[in-house]
Amino acid sequence: TKLILLDSLLQEMTEEDDRWRFLVRFEPTPRSLVYLCEVVMMNIIQDIPRLKTSSARRWTLASIPPRVRERLLELFMKKFAGMNDHRKIIQKAWSLLYTHQMNCIDLPSTISTDQTTLKSILTYLGSGHHDDTPTTVFRLISVVGVEEVNTSLKKFMMYSPCLVEIQVRRSATDELLRAIGQSCCSLEVVNFARSPGVTDAGMYYLLGDKPEDEDSPMDRTCDVTKSVPYGGTKQSLRQVKIRGTRV
User: Fold this and answer.
1) Cβ atoms 45, 68 nearer than 8 A
2) Which residue of 11, 53, 167, 204 shows the fewest CB atoms closer than 10 Å?
3) Phi/psi class of residue 88: alpha, beta or left (left: φ > 0; alpha: ψ in -120 to 50)?
């Protein structure tokens, strides 16, 4: 019933204004209306029973545009920052709202303390890819297992050629940098601080070069489904943070 009422409200507001203008925070929009809609949607998502998440996800994908879903995920992250999310609200919000159409993915350090939730989010990032994502910014401070992080992120990076900023602190490895170098040729800013798995070889991969001690050609199997030519980030990269690595 709540979903039907909210859908009616959104339909009314859409008819009065340009589509979803009230949720993108343009100046002519009253903040009270924006705040009302955000609070209503967040409360509905929090109260959806686990057994109803499949039908609720179909509704959110059909009714709420990607930019608005991205904003709601950001609000959930802020709301539960530093709190004990014993009801797994953030995990549920990601399962309902996330698709590979987000422009910015920012996973703060507070989410890393809940390893179960972070593992679920990483699973969402690395699965179900068929087309390139429009994601331009990705930030993660991780404390979960390095191998788990890199397995999901390598798949995500392969389908994210538009990335201009990547931060993977504490858990980046040479193999992740290889995947980034093969797929993200517009990259401008990287931060792999406190990642002991990053060495000189990884930086060669990132830039599109072959490590000095590697005789065999670089493995380009990550690139077979991509339309972006392999070239590394040598031409685009302008800021690198690698303190705490083995470079």
Assistant:
1) no
2) 11
3) left
| 223/159 Cα distance (integer angstroms) | 9
State the pTM of this model.
0.79
Radius of gyration of the chain (CA): 20
Name the CA dihedral angle for 70, 66, 149, 93, rounded to a multiple of 10 degrees.
60
Q: Which long-range contacts (CB under 8 A, 24 or more apart) does 206-215 make?
A: 206/177, 206/178, 206/180, 206/181, 206/232, 206/233, 206/237, 207/181, 207/232, 207/233, 207/234, 207/237, 208/181, 208/232, 208/233, 208/234, 209/234
Q: Which residue, 108, 68, 223, 105, is CA-closest to 161? A: 223
The tens-digit pLDDT sequence of the chain (247 residues) is 555 555 555 555 444 444 444 444 444 545 567 777 888 889 889 999 888 899 999 988 988 888 889 999 999 998 888 788 888 999 999 999 999 999 999 998 888 777 888 889 999 998 988 889 999 999 998 766 778 788 899 999 999 999 999 999 999 999 999 999 999 999 999 999 999 999 999 999 999 887 766 654 444 333 433 333 446 888 899 999 999 999 9
CA distance 122 to 215: 34
- For residue 200, which amino acid is it? D
Compute the 3-state secondary structure of the chain and give helix, strand, coil in percent, each to the nearest 5: 50, 10, 40
